[in-house]
């Protein structure tokens, strides 16, 4: 179940996975590797800053274009 009290400028784990085109496990791996930081929520329903996710999307697009 997704959080209904999401702060502006944040994305849920599901939204983050969708933006990045990866699975929820992929999001957890990015956090574990230090490439993405949680910015709120709870341990079971983390939130991620939309700006951080956008930066990661752009970084991946640059890498794929090269």
Question: What features would you describe in this structure?
Answer:
With about 70 residues, the protein is an alpha+beta fold. Helices cover about 50% and strands about 15% of the residues. It has helices spanning about 15-20, 25-30, 50-65; strands at about 10, 40, 45-50. A 3-stranded antiparallel β-sheet has the order 1-3-2. Strand 2 (about 40) and strand 3 form a beta hairpin. The termini are far apart.
Brief overview, please?
The protein has 66 residues and is α+β, with helices and mostly antiparallel strands. Helices cover 50% and strands 17% of the residues. The protein has a three-stranded antiparallel sheet.
Report the total helices. 3
| Helix-strand makeup class | alpha+beta
How far from one another are the termini?
38 Å
Helical amount among residues, as a percent range? 40-55%
Which residues form runs of ≥5 with pLDDT under 50? Answer: none
> Radius of gyration in whole Å, from Cα?
12 Å
Q: For the residues shown, what is the average pLDDT?
A: 92
Q: Could you give the order of strands across the largest sheet?
A: 1-3-2
Write out key terms for the chains shown:
66 residues; alpha+beta; globular; 3 strands; three-stranded antiparallel β-sheet
Describe the SSE topology.
Elements: E1 10-12, H1 13-20, H2 24-32, E2 38-41, E3 46-49, H3 50-65
Antiparallel strand pairs: 1-3, 2-3
